[in-house]
Amino acid sequence: MRPGTAVGVYCGSGVTAAHEVAALAGAGIEAALWPGSWSEWTADRSRPVATGS
């Protein structure tokens, strides 16, 4: 990772990602938590979905 690079953390529900943000902070890396995480992302029906082969 290059200095100044934005870091975002997410997981299935946001709980595990909160621990990742804390661990990164302990390592001196500032990270943003997306609280909706993957569950919120996939629940948005306006997002395109690939189907088929």
Record keyword descriptors for this entry.
single chain; pyruvate; transferase; about 35% helix; about 55 residues; mainly alpha; Rhodanese-like_dom; transferase activity; 2 helices; Rhodanese-like_dom_sf; two-stranded parallel sheet; 2 strands
Uncertain segments: none
* Sequence of strands across the biggest β-sheet: 1-2
Question: Which structural class is indicated by helix and strand composition?
Answer: mainly alpha
Number of helices: 2
User: Between the first and last Cα atoms, what is the distance in angstroms?
Assistant: 34 Å
Kindly state the percentage of residues in helix.
25-40%
Query: What general form does the structure show?
Result: elongated
Protein name: Thiosulfate/3-mercaptopyruvate sulfurtransferase
GO molecular function, one term: transferase activity
InterPro entries: Rhodanese-like_dom (IPR001763), Rhodanese-like_dom_sf (IPR036873)
Keywords: Pyruvate, Transferase
